[in-house]
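cron nightly-structures :: item 1 of 1
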Amino acid sequence: MQDQKPGIRDVTIHRAGSAEPVSDRVAVEEPMEVRVNGAPFAVIMRTPGADRDLVAGFLLAEDVIRNVDEIGAIEYCADANEEGRNNTINVTVLQEAVTRLDDRLADRRQVTMTSSCGLCGRLTIESLQSRVSSVAGEWTMPASVIASLPDRLRAAQAVFESTGGLHAAGLFDRSGTLQLSAEDVGRHNAVDKIVGRTLLAGQHPLDECVLLVSGRTSFELVQKALLAGVPLIAAVSAPSSLAVDLATQAGITLCGFVRGPNFNIYSHPRRVES
């Protein structure tokens, strides 16, 4: 079979009883090896692009780093073979992150993180809250603005429009203006890209922002928002029970099934104006 460009595959389209072979775009998924201070740490299945942001957000959630000052450099590995050169990245961590890295390497095995995995429940609510107890941001937002966020994010999903195969996350200000968006085959990766980009830009905590995700809300997604200081999360689908529990304890307003003018509020409804 002749090699094809990434994201282009041969498909057969069936329409009204006829079949037509065509080339079509699909969402790209590739493995990225993450090394920290030269040691293999994880393999993340992701959509290439914004890799530095993704890795920074991932290591924040993994409790290797806790602020941007603990990052020395994020660089693609020159010693990787040609095939893996753009899929192997090393993060140099500094200060107390070096000790935390040793601890993380000691109590985990290297795993391949699928694009839908997140932390797979490794951290409990109790251990997470010993690190970050709750969010700030005692403001309110009209329900009509929250209801408008999915359409605003969808307008920025260029790759989804051509493939239909990616998740998205968007960071909005309190007026509903989109500040930042990311797409990836994994919901967790899209959020990590946003969290990592704002971390590297020195913008944490994000206590004046709203996070919207295109799928369901899991414990891991609420955890990532908590670590970034986001007070309100909205999603077009349902939250899990553990996501609701963490949002409740962390002071986060969690909205689900944001579709059209209607949505559910699962925790801290005080931030939503009727």
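cron nightly-structures :: done
The chain has two domains: 30-120, 141-273.
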